[in-house]
Amino acid sequence: MNNNCKLCDLPIHLRPITDNGNVFCCHGCLSVFNTFGPQILENSNQTKQYRPVKPKSDEMETYLKIDGMHCSSCEVLIKKLAEMVEGISYVSTNYATSSARVIYKPKLIKESDLVGKLSFAGYKAYSYKDQNFERSIESDRSLLKTIIAATLAGIVMMLNIAFFYPLDLGLVSMEELKPLAYMNFYIVPRVMFFFTSILIFTIGMPIMRGAYIGIRALTLNMDNLLAIAILSAYGYSVVQMFMGGIDYYFDVSSMIVGVVSVGRYFEHTAKINATSELNTIINNWSLSEVHVIRNGIAMNVQIEDLKPQDIVLIKEGEVVPVNGEIVIGQAAIDESLITGEPFPVSRTIGDKVLGGVTIVEGEVQIATGDEIVSQVENLSHIFRSMQSSASGSTSIVDRIARIFVPLVLLLAFTVTAIMLINGVEVTFALLAGMTTLIVSCPCTFGLATP
User: Fold this and answer.
1) Which ranges of 172-249 does DSSP label H, i.e. alpha helix?
2) 10 and 69 together in one domain
């Protein structure tokens, strides 16, 4: 008989549930299968076509959270740069969950060193084990940067509206502005230049770093489009300022940085909220120390030091650390995390229990099997793999985005060149090219494939 569930394909360690010749691990899987029918397995089979790369005998794998990923191009960039690091064999990333699966050779690089090695170009890596404190500080910094970006961008925009829009719209003439000429055309442009420079070269530096790394790695990304648009508007405005011109686009540069910063902050917050509850559940059920009885002596040992056929003592309110069989005692057990069963079930001597369930009432001793296995660890591994792997639709989008970026650059250049050839003023030609870059940002691809 097949020992795997018909629907989820997970191993069945407890009493199987049979229906019309099919075997299920829990009533939840049975209900889903009966509701949607065999066609629900079609999507499952398509998913199984993707087989994640498995570590070799001399390799290990770990999972990291990576802040700073904004689109599918970031996945390509991080993977490409990470696999250049000695000791890293394979990297799979998913920008939607800001996570990465890393296969590495412990003889060449330690797991503790991976965080530092994968923190580059504006990206920040965290271990799942110790990320909470550092990430809370990083979140506060992101909020502060977002507030500063929005404030400075707002100041530059208001100055532009107050001192230059009336002239651009023909509401006032140069003659009427003569009494305010020094303020209007000397002081205000330099104030806008000052605030825009702070905004670009502090808050906007992750964009610039991402663009630089993308060029160096020969992987164009969203940051390349943004950086070109920002620096083009900024550079043109600086030239106008020193030449005594009146066409300034400091507001364009500052608003791009401001809007992108605000958008990335909300994106970052949404990612954290989307995965934090599941992460919390898994972390709460992952134990580091267990009670063991060896040679009649009770002792506490690290979970990685458990041996086959060890006797583990689990008291009321505690979580069963690993799969095993009850040898002493009887208890009511909450298996909702594993099977979805809403009510506690009774387990006694001879019954098998799964790692991750909770003893609601009673106290038992279980014997570990020939292999130390925890069902909650299996679920954790599946969850981390799903988080750090790109889906089929995302992979297609990756390929489109990599082609899309250089095409947009070519399109922007073509638009500018055609307008210049047709005698359009340089100002309007450059503005049209910059607009093409801004509105064609490939973030939309990423948002379309969560």
Assistant:
1) 181-182, 188-198, 205-216, 222-243
2) no
